[in-house]
Amino acid sequence: MYQFVYQRPGSLPEAVEQSTQAREGLFLAGGMTLIPTMKLRLTAPSNLIDLTDLAELKGIRQEGNAIIVGATTTHAQVVSTPEVRDLLPALAALAESIGDPQVRNRGTIGGSIANADPAADYPAAVVGLGAIVKTNTRTIAGDDFFTGLFETALDPNELIVAVSFPIPQRAAYMKFPNPASRYAIVGVMVSQGNDGVRVAVTGAGPNVFRVPEMEQALAVNFAPEVLEEITVSADELNEDLHASADYRAHLIKVMAKRAVVAAT
Question: What is the pTM of this model?
Answer without folding.
Answer: 0.96
